[in-house]
Amino acid sequence: MTTVDDHLERILAAVTPTRARRAALHEAHGCVLAADVRATVALPSFDNAAMDGYAVRAADVAGATEQEPVTLPVAADIPAGPGTPAPLPAGTAARIMTGAPLPRGADTVVQLEWTDGGGESVAVRDVPRRGQHIRRAGEDVTPGALVLAAGTIIGSAQIGLLAAVNVARPPVHPRPRIAVLSTGTELVEVGSPLRDGQIVDSNSHGIAAAARESGAQVQRLTGVPDEPDAFAKSFYGILSQVDAVVTTGGVSVGAYDVVKEVLTGAGSIRFDQVAMRPGRPQGFGLVEGVPVFTLPGNPVSALVSFDLFVRPALQRMRGLPATGLPRVEVTLAEPLRSPAGKRGFVRVTLDGLGADGRPAPDTLARPAGGQGSHQLTSLAAAQALVVIPEDVTEAPAGSRVAALLLGDVPGSILSGVGWADAHADATGPPAGLPTR
Ligand SMILES: Nc1nc2c(c(=O)[nH]1)N[C@H]1C(S)=C(S)[C@@H](COP(=O)(O)OP(=O)(O)OC[C@H]3O[C@@H](n4cnc5c(N)ncnc54)[C@H](O)[C@@H]3O)O[C@H]1N2
Ligand code: MOO
């Protein structure tokens, strides 16, 4: 038996961030910046109007009131657009639109609502503060300034900022390309009629979704039968096209445990019994330099193993700290049992979350339902996994225990990008994933 910590340590020692490259903005979305981005331009790049109105010299409209407006001739009309407006003659106004460049000589913009909106001349009805409604060049970003630091997750605001500073192809760690392979002769694709003894392949869907949440591009391979040749063909067929492979099933001790059979001795793969429940039989190693995770076939075991081992590895591959699920403390509403010598991960619901939706000191954890490795409903209902240490067989009601929050993984993104399904019998290259 190996420990959860040793198994994770071995995994994290072997995985590295995806090779940095420059990517178009739409591809960079959801990726992690691989290097600092510094501005080569100022933002705004020129002084411009913050309001539709009139560019003036403040001195020319001093003393304007509702009763006694100051009227100035309108010398120019300045829409937003390319070009440099002519300097503003003293004693005149220029009609100006939001975002349009301020003419030299003007020091203030009077918003339209303070005027009569005139075209030939304009009556100004109030005294603006000198400099009002002007956005100065460089007041957001100065040339040479750090715009975004390496390690930043590129979300929508970061995409907007990169575009604004005219960076078309930021340096990123591309999303890891992950193949998810489910083995089992009993498996059929969801939506198909079931014959006796057949079950729906739920693992490849659940694991593919978890990988996508973790920022990966996913190639799902289902219907791989428990035959060594068929598995080897699917596995080695996809290996060179991806940054990691996740398999489920076929790793315990029975006959037909095809993953174990084919991959024993491949690269640095090692099959271990990890002292945990659920998820005892695990395998990990590099095959042809590609990280391969072989998760157990029981559906809850597969997903919990993914949370514990694959999520942090994917964080590291994306260029993020490998923090895994957020760890919190909760209070047990009822006693929980766990097998001796194993770290127990108990699916729980949480009552009494704080106003911020996070566990508070009085948050109570209760089992979310049956804890069998096949019982997915309790995992679907659970908000957290309570962690029961190896040397504890019963944690009493009222005790404070560690818990891992589900569904709130740092760096997690939900996006339609990079979902591609393929069946094991499909011929030709898998569709849908960009090649590099
Ligand atoms: N004699 C022993 N039997 C088992 C042991 C053991 O130590 N000795 N370990 C048990 C534990 S713990 C686990 S976990 C499982 C792991 O088994 P495998 O990884 O070999 O998985 P399979 O045998 O292929 O399947 C197990 C179970 O899960 C269902 N399954 C498999 N794939 C899928 C899928 N894609 N979608 C939905 N369900 C799936 C499968 O039908 C089985 O019911 O082994 C125990 N046995
Ligand atoms: O380890 Mo298995 O995952 O208990 O069912």
UniProtKB/TrEMBL annotation:
The keyword Cell inner membrane does not apply. InterPro entries: MoaB/Mog-like_dom_sf, MoaB/Mog_dom, MoCF_biosynth_CS, MoeA-like, MoeA_C_domain_IV, MoeA_C_domain_IV_sf, MoeA_linker/N, MoeA_linker/N_sf. It catalyses: adenylyl-molybdopterin + molybdate = Mo-molybdopterin + AMP + H(+). One of its GO terms (cellular component) is cytosol. CDD domains: MoeA. Residues 179-316 form the MoaB/Mog domain. It is an enzyme of class 2 (transferase). Its cofactor is Mg(2+). Signal peptide: none annotated. Pfam families: MoCF_biosynth, MoeA_C, MoeA_N. One of its GO terms (molecular function) is molybdopterin molybdotransferase activity. Pathway: Cofactor biosynthesis; molybdopterin biosynthesis. PROSITE patterns: MOCF_BIOSYNTHESIS_2. The keyword Cell division does not apply. Keywords: Magnesium, Metal-binding, Molybdenum, Molybdenum cofactor biosynthesis, Transferase. Catalyzes the insertion of molybdate into adenylated molybdopterin with the concomitant release of AMP. This is Molybdopterin molybdenumtransferase. The gene is moaE.
